[in-house]
Amino acid sequence: MIFQACVDQRFDNPGEGVSVSKNSAFAEEFAHNIRTIFANVESKLGEPSEIDQRDKYAGVCGLFVLHFHIFRTVDKKLYKSLLDVCKKVPAVTLTANIIWFPDTFLINKVPAAAKLMDKKSLQAIRSSRDAFLQQKAQTLTKDVQSYYVFVTSWMMKMEAILSKEQRPDKLAEDLSNRCNVFVQGILYAYSISTIIKTTMNLYMSMQKPMTKTSVKALCRLVELLKVKFVILQFSGSGLERLIIQVLLRFLFNLTVIYSYINPFSASPPWLKGSCSVCVRLVCASELFARGRGCAHAHLLDKLCKEIEKDLRLSVHTHLKLDDRNPFKVGMKDLAHLFSLKPIRFFNRFIDIKAYVTHYLDKTFYNLTTVALHDWATYSEMRNLATQRYGLVMTEAHLPSQTLEQGLDVLEIMRNIHVFVSRYLYNLNNQVNFTYQFLQKKFYIFSQFMYDEHIKSRLIKDIRFFRETKDQSDQKYPFERAEKFNRGIRKLGITPDGQSYLDQFRQLISQIGNAMGYVRMIRSGGLHCCSSAIRFVPDLEDIVNFEELVKEESLSDETQKAASVLDSVLSDLTTNSAEGTEYFKMLVGVFAPEFRSLKNMHLRNFYMIVPPLTVNFVEHSIGCKEKLNKKNKNGAAFTDDGFAMGVAYILKLLDQYQEFDSLHWFQAVREKYMKEMSAVVKEQNVQATSQDEKLMQTMNLTQKRLDVYLQEFELLYFSLSSARIFFRADKTAAEETQEKKDRGG
Predict the structure, then answer these.
(1) Angle subtended at Cα 231 by Cα 230 and Cα 232, rounded to the nearest 5 degrees
(2) Per the database record, which ranges form the WASH complex subunit 4 N-terminal domain (predicted)?
(3) What is the pLDDT of residues 599-635, one digit of tens each?
(4) Is the dihedral of CA 556, 561, 564, 566 positive or negative?
């Protein structure tokens, strides 16, 4: 699945001007490299010098499939060559008992190429697996005998060269002989291991019974592999020491000699291969594992605990948990350890700085997930780790709150002084993302209002109200808004049952929620600013500390500190004095465009507010009813974003007076009061009757009317409150005149 997801991903990105699939030069270079790699691999498959060619063969097949998925072209000759390898390598053991069949892989992943092959060839390749297993079962006993002779001979050579005294005058020749024998042993071991794994995994995957002779032969091969490098049957601990001594001595001699002759990159191939083999053997030994374990247990892990303890105690000094007076308890300077470069331990590196950083990142992240309200503590510990030890820590990117009701933005800002002194310094930075968001939403808003069905209906409603307002006591009829809400469903609904007006209501709620978020962030910033500035006696008269320090001719460090203090006080004073003018910015930036002649269709907005409120109330009641149901998907008890969005858009269009002229909420109140009064009268008339069902129906009707009236009242209060933020008491003309008067 991982491989399939890799090759199926999109490699072209027209938006960025990236077209991989049509890059013929890259396609040809890609194919050329596949052919070159395959030629090198195929020549050594099944040969005595084979080491990792089977793994590389699997890689070449994967590259071939990737090339096909990107460029959709097939090199039939190469495809056939890849399949022909299956005759001598029918399966590849990837790891443990995970076996990979190249023919199945290539046929399934490149079906277009498989169709170009004749059926007989494909059938021959499939049957080669059975033929290989049959042949291997017949030759297994002979293979054991051959390898028994090879391994015995190799062991004798190895014992001879290890017991032989080194000749100082022929040191290079002796080392060359040792390396040749050693590498030959590795090749024998690989061949034996391949026979064992391939044969056993084929029997298991094909679910074929194994003969007693084959089992015995495989056991003999396992035994040969086990004693391959033992040379003589020593005990475990003695053997480990012997191997380590030989290999370390061997590597030391190589290093000393060739450090004087030439750089390692220019050394002969047998030297590179031998060193690599020696290192792998040492790393595979239990002694190597013990060495690494000791380094972790006695150095790295203890260092991690010490650093964590130091950071934790430093952050919690106010709790007085321990005596941290360096003159009494001493002082450990651990910072110098992080200036060390990574230490090489055979073929691995021990990076102390990276190890400790990873430990702290992991620990702080895990502990923050358990207790989100401690986010500030671990954030401070991260900052301290950077300042004190130079560790580059990773942000946790977890939600920061106190797990109490609501989004605790005030708590987030309470101690983030950098945020207060820098981020809030320029309000444009704060509302920039909101502006970009609103710009996209208003484009959709304009499209909806420009729709012919919507525009024509609103124009009819405006004309109707102007002609009948004297007869309706200047109130927009509730029935008209309700008819609009229901009639718009005829234009079509989404798969989840939403009308266009439902989606328009959601759009306005999203706009209002964006405004609410800006207000929430800004309020939190002001709260934090006021808390930080409360120690300043007089905001109107703040002395300049840098000038006072210079007058006293104090040190440069003191002057720098005084300058920083002046800067902080200046920022805090500026932020505290900014007031609540942030909504003005978001009104001022969009209002001219909304009120321009080219957007005349937006001036009908005030007339769609009544049906929008009807739609909103129905939606709100439905969300609240879901709170009592088992399936609470979509349940909610409040949504003030809608009221905020309506108030904001009415302000942008300067239509508060137009909307107020509808006396909409008065019409709603009269409508429901009238219906409730009628129900009460009917209940009084039917009180003498014994019709319980009729009485229950009337009670339910009265309850429903109460709920609807209450929702409309709540919406009215929310809208009235939201209008205060945008100074609904003044029209655009009055605000302009006020600015002129203020300027004069």
Answers:
(1) 90
(2) 2-227
(3) 899 999 999 999 999 999 999 998 888 888 877 787 8
(4) negative
